[in-house]
Specification:
Layout lengths: L7 H16 L4 H11 L8 H10 L4 H8 L3 H8 L7 H13 L1 H15 L6 H4 L11
């Protein structure tokens, strides 16, 4: 996923710091501090937007929760406005919002490959031709 920076100068600084992290010159904590300073934060989603996003992908709350690596209760609470997702879950939601079905299909492919299960929903199978022979 391309990173969105607060400005060109901050993009250059952040890329330099990523290089330093890869070489072992700075630790993950320091890099995270530069993430906060240089990267534009993910836009929070409203409860109705989260529910509409899930429904547009034609998946249940438990399946959506597994894709986001959160509990089903968090998805349910988020859709009712009781809680707001943050961190990696919010990033994934923003990617799903931008990329839609294609991204979710890639996540499903990954889950199928990693955990060795078959995807049964016909609407999903057509999107994941890379696994078509294994998904009958």
């Amino acid at each position: 996923m391309p990173k969105t920076y607060k400005g060109e100068a901050l993009a250059a600084v952040h890329e330099m710091m990523e290089g330093l992290h890869e070489s072992g010159a700075i630790d993950k904590r320091t890099l995270c501090e530069f993430d906060e300073a240089c990267l534009v934060p993910a836009t929070p989603l409203q409860a109705d937007e989260i529910k509409a996003l899930r429904e547009a992908q034609l998946v249940s709350q438990p399946i959506f929760a597994s894709y986001l690596n959160v509990s089903t209760n968090l998805v349910s609470d988020s859709e009712r406005g009781k809680k707001r997702p943050g961190g990696p879950a919010l990033r994934l939601l923003s990617i799903i919002q931008r990329k839609g079905r294609l991204f979710l299909s890639l996540v499903q492919c990954s889950f199928a490959l990693i955990y060795g299960f078959r995807i049964k929903a016909p609407s999903i199978r057509s999107d994941v031709s890379c696994l078509q022979p294994d998904l009958r």
